[in-house]
Amino acid sequence: MSGALTSVDLVNFYAARCYTIGRQLELTTEELFDEALIMAKHCDEERALAIANKTQDNLPFLHGIPISVKELYFMKGKLSTVGLAMNNQRSKIDGVAVQPLLEAGAIPLIRGNVSQAALSIHSTNHIWGTC
Predict the structure, then answer these.
(1) Which of these, 30, 21, 33, 12, lies nearest to 131 by C-alpha position?
(2) 6-55: per-residue pLDDT in tens?
């Protein structure tokens, strides 16, 4: 990677799309833009240091890449309602599907809408709407 495009650039670009298109189409449940920007700045600093030390090959596979995490997967401190109003607790842990992505350096940008109880391929529920 040449460093011409930073993680901050990626987060800002995709956050803008999520802010407009994601909201308009009810694709998102939680927006993690502020947290993602902090993580992106940290990733850019790590990448700059790794490039200076010629150790960029040691960076994790998804280092600094923003991702969407479906709302049914547990993320520490985030809701995982699966479209059900009774599931209103925030997770105390990162789930087994999310943990490897974080370890690989991915930056969670948004939580994605899912069907009620994840029982359909069409994402519709009474909490987050129909996307």
Answers:
(1) 21
(2) 999 999 999 999 999 988 888 888 999 999 999 999 999 999 999 999 99
Token reading at 103 = 């370890």
pTM metric for this prediction: 0.89
Bridge pairing between strands 124-125 and 129-130: antiparallel
> Which contacts qualify for 71-76: CB closer than 8 Å, 24 or more apart?
71/29, 71/30, 71/111, 71/112, 71/113, 71/114, 71/128, 72/114, 72/118, 73/97, 73/98, 74/98, 75/108, 75/111
DSSP 91: B
pLDDT digits (tens, 9 = 90+) for 51-72: 999 999 999 999 999 999 999 9
Q: Checking phi first, is residue 19 left (phi over 0); if not, alpha (psi -120 to 50) or beta?
A: alpha
Residue 119: pLDDT band with limits 50, 70, 90: confident
Answer yes or no: are the C-beta atoms of 107 and 37 closer than 8 Å.
Answer: no
> What single string gives the DSSP state of each residue in 29-43?
EEE-HHHHHHHHHHH
